[in-house]
Amino acid sequence: MSRAKRRILALFAGLVLALPLAELVARIVAPVSRTPIGRQGLLRQLAPADTDHRLYDLFPSRERSVWGVQVRTNAQGFRGRDAALRKSPGTLRIVAMGDSITFGTGLATEDTWAAQLERQGIDSGRSIEVLNAGVEGYDLRDSLERLEHQALALDPDIVVYAYCINDIGTATVQLPYLGRDPRLRWFADSALLGAYRRWRERGRAAHLETLAALREEGIPRLSIAGDETLAGLMAALDEELPRERPPRDCRRAQATLRWYTEAERIERLRWGLGRLSELGQEAGFEVQVVLIPALRELFPWCSRRAWDTGYRIVEHELRRAGLEFVNLARPFRRRGLLELRQERSDDIHPSAEGSGMIAAAVLAALEERGLLDPK
Questions:
Q1: Which DSSP helix (H) or strand (E) runs through 9?
Q2: Which of the residues 57, 88, 235, 256 could staple to 49 if both were Cys, CB 3.0 to 4.6 A apart?
Q3: Which of 185, 206, 209, 163 is nearest to 311 (CA)?
Q4: Pick from 86, 120, 116, 81: which is nearest to 101 by CA?
Q5: Domain ranges in the chain?
Q6: What are phi and psi of 344, to 5 degrees?
Q7: What is residue 25's predicted lDDT score, i.e. its pLDDT?
Q8: Average pLDDT over every residue of 137-160
Q9: Does domain 32-368 have CATH number 2.40.240.50?
């Protein structure tokens, strides 16, 4: 073998040995957090969706470890046990809709708010079943399509939609993008490449902005022109948000609040809530909305006052759509927002205790409306 060939072979062998070592060092120095989803097992649960807007769904009848807990989907692709197409006589069937909070990211199945709602209802002497149709990363339009194309076949009596404050945007748009493009799966799995990507894209801001634009194309909207109450709330929120660049740990929260000052996003929200109300009337089910607050309030960057104005905007749109709702901001604050987090760094997903509070609030709202009484 010539000297040149030996050098090339040695160089190649060195690269083969160096890359795994660099990956190991990267995982120790800058471990992959919850943001890149490939290592957490979620990609193995994603299946192509059968509608135009949704980019992904959950594989039916599959069990995998996701975020460190076992996740099982039933024949309908819902999280949890199998459900008969026809509900049992005398049983009240509730479908839980929403994003990762409903799906139960990081929680065992029995700790999700949907499962706790079922247990609390049974403990109160009712015959009810709750089906968890939540999917991580879904926005309102995604949830509506899943309801219309999948959940309605199960003939629900009640649909409970857990509205997360970031549902107005595409906060986890990287999730469907990675899920639908197998060429990028390895990109999410690697700590080394993930660290390079974070450095290269400065937090992936440009990447997410581009994908968000793609996700929002073609979403129906209803005009908000002439709604002076709404205009006043949006203007007040704009005044309450500082113009200075917020600290790193508050940028996502402030960006979420600023979405509620953008007319196009509010118009999409108005259409979505109106469509949810229409589906209830058309299919004959009752709708209950529960507003899940953010688990972060930092003055002045995203103060309690600013969050409350954002919640009032959502409440305004819910009332306009004729939807019953309960806002959990006050009870969550009384308990302590930090205490209700799964992890100190996660300001979105409530713990098992927080999910239990969601379930209790939903059960109380349904009881107050008389929807749990036999008909």
A1: helix 3-29
A2: 57
A3: 163
A4: 116
A5: 1-31, 32-368
A6: -60, -30
A7: 52
A8: 93
A9: no
